[in-house]
Design a protein that fits this description.
The structure holds two protein chains of two kinds.
Chain A lengths: L5 E10 L2 E11 L4 E5 L6 H9 L6 E6 L2 E2 L5 H7 L1 E4 L11 H13 L13 H13 L15 H14 L4 E5 L7 H14 L5 E4 L3 H7 L2 E6 L2 E6 L1 H6 L1 H6 L6
Parallel strand pairs in A: 3-8, 3-9, 6-7, 7-8
Antiparallel strand pairs in A: 1-2, 1-4, 4-5, 9-10
Chain B lengths: L4 H22 L4 H25 L8 H20 L3 E2 L4 E2 L5 H23 L4 H20 L10 E2 L14 H24 L1 H11 L1 H6 L4 H27 L1 E2 L6 H14 L6 H19 L3 H15 L3 H7 L6
Classes of the chains: A alpha/beta, B mainly alpha.
Chain lengths: 249, 328
């Protein structure tokens, strides 16, 4: 079996008495979508923060591309190729969609310490950025400030940014949230193809999307993974049904 | 190349500033030349602050430190050159110079080192803490200058003969104005380039959303530190010019009033806008001169004006004339 792209080992994080992450181990293998589901307050966001580097775990290890990244900050992990979308979209809101993506292209090309060449006339920045926007269907909205984009469009923009980073793994935190049925359907189709470029760790509440996309599902409840397996395993797991799915179906 | 409306306004302001001293001489009122020089120098100082505050969103309440350090470098170099004493650093000594280009380089280097030190500590904080910590550092330089008798202490330091510029008689007011005007133009060009560059993109994005910048792989701290250093260096250059204009430098150049004044200039003119600092400086100096002649309480009216701008014209003068800022 191929070595996992992302490998999380026995991660622990407590806030006071609350065990937000209580010995979580999971991995992400090449070519797969691994969905992480769980009820509100299960610790999904805390886990994502530790993987992305915004929070430091108390114990355990995050390995990315075969090396431990515990000591690396958010920016360093992103440069390694950890692309991310946020639960609440996080963009440079005054900048146009294009300039948001260009920021990622510029980071990937190396130094941001270039003081004189105008970015808007730099085709090595605008062209790849435009290509990424086109892939997510935002080409026509390239020059609109991020603040004026619709909720769903901002979601697409975040994915375009992750694409422009040439990510080696995607960390998508509820990419479907707030999207209409048509938008969700389109995004589902898009993510389905995306997994062949880089594997996706998908946190999502939209169960239709999860069941349609996931190669594997892990269920997080009270900071612990209570079950992990294929879509069918999870659907038929009595503990999962009791803890989570039961109140949905 | 077509110019944006904002760039037209910048050119128009520069043309206006350039016209003031010539008109003044024609009408036999050379005092206005000094006024225009003051506008250029304060504008330059605010262009410096605008890099940190306007582009980076770093509200430094301590830029007087750089302004004053620039002024003191000009004063100290002038006094040493006058008495032909080398600058003694204990381990080594350097000959002092009364040539402006040399003074400017030294002023910017010293301010750059100071900004690196202040920035390295201050930029670990944000918001009101950043404001307070930059203020604290500037106050430290203020009290240091007051308690350093070698260079005048509280009384300040006079520059008996204005420093020299190769091939120019700097004692002629219009000549000195043109030197300051030239430096201002260079600084504005530099600001425009930085604003539209990769560095400027990262800096402005970090102002809007720090998390976004980090998660595309750019560490905001280093970007901000470099911006803070560049910002301090430009303001220090203005300080050196200011000391030579007044032929006097005193701790008041380092005081928190000065820091506040620079922020006011930018808010009046337009935060982050190319010509904002210049517009603000021209308005401020004009206000100070016209109203200052009528009443000692002119700052009360300046306060009213500032209040009006903050409440009704957030983008300052430039925002009022050129409209809101669009980024690509």
């Amino acid at each position: 079996m191929a070595e996992p792209v992302l490998d999380i080992r026995d991660l622990r994080k407590t806030f006071g008495a609350l065990k937000a992450t209580d010995g979580v181990s999971l991995d992400l293998r090449p070519g797969e979508i691994h969905a992480l589901i769980g009820p509100n307050g299960a610790g999904k966001s805390t886990l994502i923060h530790q993987i992305a580097g915004t929070l430091k775990p108390d114990a355990g290890e995050v390995r990315f591309l075969g090396q431990t990244v515990n000591q690396l900050g958010v920016a360093e992990r992103a440069r390694m190729g950890l692309g991310r979308s946020f639960q609440v979209s996080s963009l440079a809101t005054e900048f146009s969609a294009l300039r948001n993506v260009m920021l990622a292209v510029q980071s990937k090309q190396g130094s941001s310490f270039r003081f004189f060449k105008p970015v808007m006339r730099d085709k090595s920045l605008t062209e790849p950025a435009m290509a990424a926007l086109e892939r997510v269907g935002l080409k026509d909205r390239a020059h609109v400030p991020a603040a004026e984009l619709s909720h769903g469009e901002r979601r697409q923009l975040e994915i375009a940014i992750a694409l422009a980073l040439d990510s080696k793994a995607f960390l998508l935190d509820e990419p479907m949230a707030g999207m209409g049925p048509e938008g969700s359907r389109q995004l589902t189709g898009f993510l389905d193809g995306l997994r062949h470029e880089a594997p996706i760790l998908l946190v999502e509440h939209d169960m239709d999307a999860v069941f349609a996309l996931a190669d594997r599902i892990s269920v997080l409840v009270y900071g612990r993974i209570i079950a992990s397996g294929s879509v069918d395993d999870i659907r038929n797991n009595p503990e999962v049904r009791r803890a989570y799915l039961g109140d949905m179906e | 190349m077509s110019l944006s409306r904002e760039n037209w306004i910048s050119l128009a302001l520069l043309a206006l500033l350039l016209a003031i001293p010539y008109a003044a001489i024609n009408f036999g009122n050379p005092f206005y030349v000094t006024l225009a020089t003051r506008m250029a120098i304060l504008g330059l100082a605010a262009v410096g602050l605008n890099v940190a505050l306007g582009l980076g969103g770093l509200v430094s309440f301590g830029h007087a430190a750089f302004f004053g350090v620039g002024g003191y470098i000009a004063g100290i170099m002038a006094s040493h050159a006058m008495s032909m004493q080398p600058l003694n650093f204990g381990l080594f000594a350097l000959p002092a110079s009364n040539q402006m280009p040399a003074i400017w380089i030294v002023a910017m280097l010293v301010a750059g080192v100071l900004a690196a030190a202040i920035g390295a500590i201050s930029l670990r904080t944000s918001g009101v803490y950043f404001i307070m910590i930059t203020l604290a550092f500037a106050q430290m330089t203020f009290y240091f200058a007051i308690s350093w008798p070698a260079y005048g202490g509280e009384d300040g330091l006079s520059i008996l003969v204005r420093n020299q510029f190769p091939g120019v008689n700097t004692m002629v007011p219009i000549n000195y104005f043109l030197i300051c005007f030239g430096v201002l133009v260079v600084a504005l060009i530099l600001f425009a380039l930085i604003k539209n560059s990769r560095f400027g993109a990262a800096l402005q994005a970090a102002r809007q959303n720090e998390v976004r910048v980090a998660s595309v792989g750019i560490a905001p701290f280093r970007i901000r530190l470099v911006a803070f250093i560049v910002s301090g260096m430009i303001t220090a250059l203005a300080g050196a010019l200011y000391a030579d204009l007044n032929r006097f430098v005193s701790p008041s150049m380092l005081s928190w009033h000065m820091s506040g004044e620079l922020i006011v200039l930018i808010i009046l003119g337009g935060v982050g806008r190319l010509a904002g600092p210049l517009a603000g400086a021209m308005l401020f100096v004009m206000f100070e001169f016209l109203l200052g002649g009528l009443t000692e309480r002119w700052q009360f009216f300046l306060g009213l004006l500032l209040l009006g701008v903050v409440l009704f014209a957030r983008g300052g003068l430039i925002g009022l004339v050129a409209g809101r800022q669009r980024h690509g």
